[in-house]
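Attaching the record inline, Q. Sequence:
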Amino acid sequence: MKETLLTGWNAMRWIRLAMGIMCTVQAIQLHDKFLGAIAIILLYQSLANKGCCGANICTTQSSSKQNKSIEEIKFQEIK
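Structure, as predicted:
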């Protein structure tokens, strides 16, 4: 857990942390429970590096990782 908190900080994690802190402040000032729940979710995602963008689940494979042994497709003309 300590390694997750200290490493891998990218722009998306910083944005989630900033949004979580802003939502927390607003939730306290406005006494809004829904905004507080959103703040908790955002803070959890930023601190635990969870979520689609933090875990790189949505990314596609880079060209270096793709299978290079793709066979050439041969077409036959039908008359």
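Residues 16 and 46 are 5 Å apart (CA to CA). Residues 2-48 form one domain.

More tomorrow.
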